[in-house]
Amino acid sequence: MLQDLLEGAGRSIVYGLVGIGLMAVGYILIDLLTPGKLRDLIWAERNQNAALLLASNQLGIALIVFTAIFTSYDSFGRGLASTVIFGLVGIAIMGLSFLVLDWMTPGKLGEVICTPERHGGALVSSATHFGAALIICACIS
């Protein structure tokens, strides 16, 4: 019984590290898609548009990781691999959704996200990111 508990705790740590790593990749993606540095935009300039987009991206990735773990294979290795693969696919799809939305709307979406005033485009972009994550979650389950 103790061995099962320790094994489960070890797996939780590994899955947690993978989830944090995937969220870090998601952060980098948003940083690349928007002008300027996210850390400056969000923490120094308190830009709510950038914060909303990053928050939806991070929640979307966390939801993908959760779904991948929840529906995971019995084999730890296969479950871990599927979590990484679906996480990376989700991040790529979220990035693609940003580019498609940018193509469909006037101006540059990255610049809209970086404006200091609240902008409806940030809300739409945020919903698009989260919607893309939900699509990946449905594919996993």
Automatic annotation (TrEMBL):
The chain crosses the membrane at residues 12-30, 50-73, 80-101, 121-140. Pfam families: DUF350. It is found in: Cell membrane. Belongs to the UPF0719 family. This is DUF350 domain-containing protein. It comes from Paractinoplanes ferrugineus. It is a multi-pass membrane protein. One of its GO terms (cellular component) is plasma membrane. The keyword RNA-binding does not apply. It comes from the Bacteria. InterPro entries: DUF350. Keywords: Cell membrane, Membrane, Transmembrane, Transmembrane helix.
